[in-house]
């Protein structure tokens, strides 16, 4: 009882982070002539927070992607549904990253450049395209984790995950172990995220002291750009796919999806929205066999909104530090953000941790996270809404594409039931 009372009283993390942002802006403005002092004595506490994020991102990516892959072990059984679902998810997510990046690149002149003093950044050498491709594949089991090479960690996770599925029955303990370690990593992430108000305050105060009010305008702009990209992706990509491949009117689709959309927007959790999403898609005529496979898988591996957010934030952070992104870095961002969506958990704030991974993959300063962390919840509400709408659109599309097959399976099941009853 007491515990319940305590839980009720606790302020939501997002609110604490927002307060930290407001306090950082206020303190930064007040102590604007103490920037040097703040840089030397306050910022290091922010660096501790960034170190912890760097520490946890490797295990999170490795184990959550492996857990996502092994959770598809029924893929052979559901055969056609699995294939079309994964293909749809990967294509729409790659599209989402491109829209996010494109929108941000167009809007880049609106993002104000900040001073790079105190920021650790090694200017990336322009890597030839083929080297970028070759470098995706690890040549060593530990090096990807030690070097924080996230693309290689993802490839490692995919190879090991599929190998576990192929081993079959014997690998059951490994699947269980991965699920447990994944849960432990998530718990650790949750603990580290609890420190974000302190991290945000300590990283942002010196920046505001140095840059003044410039930063507020920049944050409003990047939010606007992300929301325009969310809306464009949702309206264009999902309307077209639902209308053409799903043979369902987009107006009807969005109308039926409204309860799930509103819930996702306010909860910022795809996993939490799952029950409502199942209900909305069933009202759209999607059969249980499809939705019960496509939606949970989507809540685990399909995050179009998160991919858009990452595209927008990476360009924003690069612009803030006056860093020019090379074409090979842009390609790396599209690949990493698409794959990062597989590793993003459907819980509030997970996408922000994954942003660290995308920044790391192209060598951008992780400090940039502090710039956007204070308003992460506002980004998160929009990206979660896009995430779950994408999952539902996949349901409608797969359900229509496999309509005939589903009917055949349905009648086969009926025949089997009749036979059993006769026996
Ligand atoms: N909150 C998002 C979701 O649940 C994940 C993210 O943080 O991007 O879908």
Would you write up a description of this structure?
With 423 residues, this protein is an all-alpha fold. It is 80% helix and 0% strand. The chain has 21 helices and no strands. The chain has helices at 2-9, 13-30, 35-41, 43-70, 75-78, 80-107, 129-134, 143-147, 150-167, 172-194, 196-211, 214-245, 250-267, 270-283, 288-301, 304-320, 327-343, 350-361, 368-373, 376-401, 403-422. Helix 4 runs parallel beside helix 9 (150-167), helix 6 runs parallel beside helix 16 (304-320) and helix 6 runs antiparallel to helix 20 (376-401). Residues 268-270, 303, 306, 344, 346-351, 380, 383-384, 387 line the site of aspartic acid.
- Given as residue ranges, the uncertain stretches (5+ residues, pLDDT < 50) are none
How far apart are the termini? 54 Å
User: Helicity, in percent?
Assistant: over 70%
Shape: globular
Ligands in the model, by name, code or SMILES, are:
aspartic acid
Report the total helices. Answer: 21
- Give the tally of β-strands: 0
The major pleated sheet works out as: none
Task: Please identify the structural class as seen in this structure.
Answer: mainly alpha
Rg, alpha carbons? 22 Å
Topology order in helix (H) and strand (E) letters: HHHHHHHHHHHHHHHHHHHHH
**What proportion of the residues form beta strands (DSSP E)?**
under 5%
Mean pLDDT: 82
């Amino acid at each position: 009882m007491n515990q319940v009372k305590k839980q009720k009283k606790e302020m939501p993390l997002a609110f604490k982070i927002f307060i930290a942002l407001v306090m950082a802006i206020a303190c930064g403005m007040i102590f604007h002539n103490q920037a040097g002092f703040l840089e030397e004595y306050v910022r290091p506490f922010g660096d501790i927070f960034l170190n912890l994020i760097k520490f946890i991102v490797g295990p999170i990516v490795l184990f959550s992607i492996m857990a996502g892959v092994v959770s598809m072990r029924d893929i052979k059984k559901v055969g056609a549904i699995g294939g079309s679902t994964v293909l749809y998810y990967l294509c729409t997510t790659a599209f989402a990253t491109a829209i996010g990046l494109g929108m941000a690149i167009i809007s880049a002149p609106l993002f104000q450049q900040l001073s790079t003093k105190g920021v650790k950044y090694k200017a990336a050498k322009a890597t030839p395209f083929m080297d970028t491709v070759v470098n995706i594949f690890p040549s060593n089991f530990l090096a990807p984790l030690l070097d924080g090479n996230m693309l290689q960690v993802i490839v490692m996770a995919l190879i090991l995950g599929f190998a576990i599925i192929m081993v079959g029955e014997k690998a059951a303990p490994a699947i269980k172990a991965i699920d447990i370690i994944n849960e432990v990593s998530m718990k650790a992430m949750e603990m580290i995220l609890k420190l974000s108000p302190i991290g945000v305050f300590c990283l942002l105060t010196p920046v505001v002291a140095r840059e003044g009010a410039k930063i507020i305008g920049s944050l409003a702009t990047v939010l606007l750009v992300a929301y325009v990209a969310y809306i464009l992706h949702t309206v264009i990509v999902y309307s077209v796919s639902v209308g053409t491949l799903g043979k369902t009117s987009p107006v009807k689709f969005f109308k039926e999806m409204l309860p799930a959309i509103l819930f996702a927007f306010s909860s910022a959790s795809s996993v939490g929205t799952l029950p409502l999403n199942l209900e909305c898609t069933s009202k759209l005529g999607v059969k249980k066999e499809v939705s019960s496979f496509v939606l949970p898988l989507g809540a685990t591996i399909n995050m179009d909104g998160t991919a858009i957010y990452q595209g927008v934030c990476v360009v924003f952070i690069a612009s803030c530090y006056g860093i020019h992104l090379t074409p090979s870095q842009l390609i790396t961002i599209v690949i990493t953000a698409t794959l990062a969506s597989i590793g993003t958990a459907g819980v509030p704030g997970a996408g922000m941790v994954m942003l660290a991974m995308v920044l790391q993959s192209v060598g951008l300063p992780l400090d940039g996270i502090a710039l956007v962390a204070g308003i992460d919840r506002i980004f998160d509400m929009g990206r979660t809404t896009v995430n779950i709408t994408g999952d539902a659109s996949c349901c409608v599309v797969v359900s229509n594409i496999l309509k005939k097959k589903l009917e055949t399976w349905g009648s086969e099941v009926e025949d089997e039931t009749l036979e059993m009853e006769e026996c």
